[in-house]
């Protein structure tokens, strides 16, 4: 083992952070770029399902909250692309990989938002699942990713509470509003469980990512944590989770739950979900529409750099 490898292994073993200045094995760099890029893409594509309701939010207050939430997701994408850049990735190339289908984003954002109750359920379940998955990532071994995750988790907590509060309000409303919430819960529950990824025995990356302390828990452990957390919240809300096999297991000290349709997850990940084509087409259009902004920003940066050089030359 070389000196560099020994230093890397010792840093991981001591639970210290790997920083951009440190040497890392190529496999670690690739895994980190893959996970961070997929995560960043998810945040940016994840703006679309809820963005769909900004112009139709039922009040000024709901519109302001939703606008702030969707803007937060854009911010999360930016921190994450910046973290990927510290590993030598190029943001433009990552975006190209997304829109050409060579990199993934979370399956959950390929489902449609049919009613305003979906906005509440995304906050409650989707942001809830995201928090469950991401709080342990605040202790991930790669410093820039772990630090980005701290702020992201704080903001996701606000997102989850706004979703739950929205749903509580609807549940105190008319029967039609309560039915709308139940319908949204029925549609989002199983896809939310799929967010945690394939089961452990079909997860090719988990073992190595755990050994490198990128991931701190397996997909199934986090999925179970999410189910245990959501059941009492559903009871308080007054909705039924669409799983007849959901039952407290006193021996395991966890809720048992029914089988997940893994074929559906595979289909959605491989591009055949209800909204995959629409999501990518929108992202591609936004990227092309933004071409002139990127050009202008680069021209401005070049002008400033020239100005600075000229300024220094004058002083000298
Ligand atoms: N969808 O071996 P594993 C959010 C892929 S952000 C699509 O288990 P790993 C905030 C996986 O990447 C949501 N692909 O992989 C928000 C791998 O791909 P490969 C995103 C999936 O990495 C809320 C392959 O399958 N969060 O919600 C999915 O060890 C509201 C094999 O899987 C993150 O990205 C899936 N559900 O574990 C925004 C968190 N599951 O190797 C807007 C960070 C798996 O073929 C509104 N990421 N795959 O390239 C992680 O924790 C991990 O990457 C996992 C997957 C747990 C997602």
Briefly, what is this?
GO terms for molecular function: phenylacetyl-CoA 1,2-epoxidase activity. With 316 residues, this protein is mainly alpha-helical.
Topology overview:
Blueprint: H1 3-13, H2 26-45, H3 47-51, H4 60-85, H5 91-99, H6 117-134, H7 143-171, H8 175-194, H9 206-211, H10 219-237, E1 247-249, E2 254-256, H11 262-272, H12 276-289, H13 291-315
Antiparallel strand pairs: 1-2
Q: Can you walk through the features of this model?
A:
Helix 6 runs antiparallel to helix 7 (143-171) and helix 6 packs parallel to helix 8 (175-194). The chain has one domain (3-273): Up-down Bundle (Ferritin), CATH 1.20.1260. It has helices at residues 3-13, 26-45, 47-51, 60-85, 91-99, 117-134, 143-171, 175-194, 206-211, 219-237, 262-272, 276-289, 291-315, and strands spanning 247-249, 254-256. A two-stranded antiparallel sheet has the order 1-2. A hairpin with a 4-residue loop joins strand 1 (247-249) and strand 2 (254-256). The protein is mainly alpha-helical and 316 residues long. The chain binds Phenylacetyl coenzyme A (FAQ). Residues 34-35, 38-39, 42-43, 46, 73, 104, 106-107, 122, 126-127, 130, 133-134, 194-198, 203-206, 209, 215, 219, 269 line the site of Phenylacetyl coenzyme A. Keywords: Oxidoreductase. One of its GO terms (cellular component) is cytosol. Its EC number is 1.14.13.149. GO terms for molecular function: phenylacetyl-CoA 1,2-epoxidase activity. This is Ring-1,2-phenylacetyl-CoA epoxidase subunit PaaA.
């Amino acid at each position: 083992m070389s000196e560099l490898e020994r230093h890397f292994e010792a840093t991981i073993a001591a639970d210290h952070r790997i920083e951009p200045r440190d040497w890392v094995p190529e496999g670690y760099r690739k895994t980190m770029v893959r996970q961070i890029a997929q995560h960043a893409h998810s945040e940016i594509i994840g703006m679309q399902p809820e963005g769909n309701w900004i112009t139709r939010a039922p009040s000024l207050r709901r519109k302001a909250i939703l606008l702030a939430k969707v803007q937060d997701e854009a911010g999360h994408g930016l921190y994450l692309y910046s973290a990927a850049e510290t590993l030598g990735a190029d943001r433009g190339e990552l975006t190209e990989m997304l829109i050409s289908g060579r990199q993934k984003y979370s399956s959950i954002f390929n489902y449609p938002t049919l009613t305003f109750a979906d906005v509440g359920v995304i906050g409650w379940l989707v942001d809830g699942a995201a928090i469950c998955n991401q709080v342990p990532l605040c202790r991930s071994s790669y410093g820039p990713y772990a630090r980005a995750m701290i702020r992201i988790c704080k903001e996701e907590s606000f997102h989850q509470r706004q979703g739950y509060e929205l749903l509580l309000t609807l549940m105190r409303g008319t029967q039609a509003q309560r039915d709308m919430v139940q319908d949204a819960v029925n549609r989002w529950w199983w896809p939310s469980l799929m967010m945690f990824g394939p089961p452990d025995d079909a997860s090719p990356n988990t073992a190595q990512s755990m050994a490198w302390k990128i991931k701190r828990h397996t997909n199934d452990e986090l999925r179970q944590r999410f189910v245990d957390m959501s059941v009492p919240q559903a009871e308080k809300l007054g909705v039924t989770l669409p799983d007849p096999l959901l039952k407290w297991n006193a021996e395991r000290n966890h809720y048992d739950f029914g089988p997940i349709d893994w074929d559906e997850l595979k289909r959605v990940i491989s591009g055949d979900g209800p909204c995959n084509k629409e999501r990518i087409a929108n992202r591609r259009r936004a990227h092309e529409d933004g071409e002139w902004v990127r050009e202008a920003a680069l021209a401005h940066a070049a002008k400033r750099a020239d100005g600075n050089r000229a300024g220094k030359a004058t002083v000298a």
